[in-house]
């Protein structure tokens, strides 16, 4: 989850936490690849941008299994609505059939966030730009993003942060177990909601064979 260490993600997070667009009301995010391939990266960034709060409810719908060119067993197409504290609604589309980032030609570069607040809007596209515009700004603040220009530096910062944590317990890594478990619970809650076909409170208990049960439901109707 090295995207937490991308400078563009960190600068956007600071904009959000500093209240530049007011109180966050609604987030839309989209990626291709299923919920167990690109999905963990998408969900982790949702948590990161929302100051690592955990969602309180989930409502999801799914169809198809596995999808494009990978072996992660999960629905090929999944729509998820998360509710976070403060009634922040996050709408996620994780689908091989998603429109994705318009104009993007690399399947794995489709990762986009649009964030609406009470005083403005912000956005982050993995391989194009990030920016924000709030009340009183005549033009938006926009900066370029680049996967090629961010990934190696992000991986390096990720590894350096791990060494700093080993040296000093107070330097907690941003990918610590507490944060990872929130993402895991959110994803598994989405699968559980899709299987039960109803809204659920989070966190929720899931059985060890949930993915297999969901696969039978999606492929056999049972």
Category from helices, strands and their pairing: alpha+beta
Oligomer: single chain
What string gives the helices and strands in order? HEHEEEEEEEHHEH
Tell me the total number of β-strands. Answer: 9
Task: Please name the CATH architecture.
Answer: 2-Layer Sandwich
CATH structural fold name: Dihydrodipicolinate Reductase, domain 2
Low-confidence stretches: none
Cα shape: globular
State the helix count.
Answer: 5
Count up the domains. 1
Mean pLDDT: 95
Kindly provide the name of the CATH class: Alpha Beta
Question: By CATH's scheme, which homologous superfamily applies?
Answer: Dihydrodipicolinate Reductase, domain 2
Summarize the main sheet: 9 strands, mixed
What proportion of the residues form beta strands (DSSP E)?
Answer: 25-35%
Give the terminus-to-terminus CA distance.
35 Å
Would you mind describing this structure in some detail?
By secondary structure, the protein is α+β, with helices and mostly antiparallel strands. It has a single domain (2-220), classed as Dihydrodipicolinate Reductase, domain 2, CATH 3.30.360. Helix content is 33%, strand content 27%. The chain contains five helices and nine strands, in the order αβαβββββββααβα. It is globular. The model has no long low-confidence stretch (mean pLDDT 95).
């Amino acid at each position: 989850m090295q995207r937490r260490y991308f400078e563009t993600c960190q600068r956007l997070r600071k904009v959000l936490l500093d209240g530049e667009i007011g109180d966050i009301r609604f987030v839309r995010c989209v990626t291709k690849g299923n919920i167990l391939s690109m999905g963990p990266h998408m969900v982790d960034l949702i948590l990161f941008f929302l100051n690592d709060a955990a969602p309180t409810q989930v409502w999801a719908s799914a169809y198809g299994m596995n999808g494009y060119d990978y072996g992660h067993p999960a629905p090929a197409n999944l729509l998820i609505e998360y509710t976070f504290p403060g009634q922040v609604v996050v709408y996620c589309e994780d689908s091989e059939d998603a429109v994705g980032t318009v104009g993007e030609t690399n399947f794995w570069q489709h990762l986009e966030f649009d964030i609406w607040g009470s005083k403005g809007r912000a956005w982050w596209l993995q391989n194009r730009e990030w920016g924000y515009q709030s009340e009183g700004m005549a033009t938006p603040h926009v900066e370029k993003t680049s996967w090629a220009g961010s990934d190696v530096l992000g991986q390096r910062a990720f590894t350096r942060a791990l060494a700093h944590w080993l040296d000093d317990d107070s330097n907690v890594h941003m990918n610590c177990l507490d944060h990872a478990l929130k993402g895991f619970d959110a994803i598994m809650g989405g699968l559980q909601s899709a299987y039960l076909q109803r809204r659920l409170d989070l966190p929720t208990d899931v059985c060890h064979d949930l993915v297999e049960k969901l696969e039978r439901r999606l492929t056999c109707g049972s």
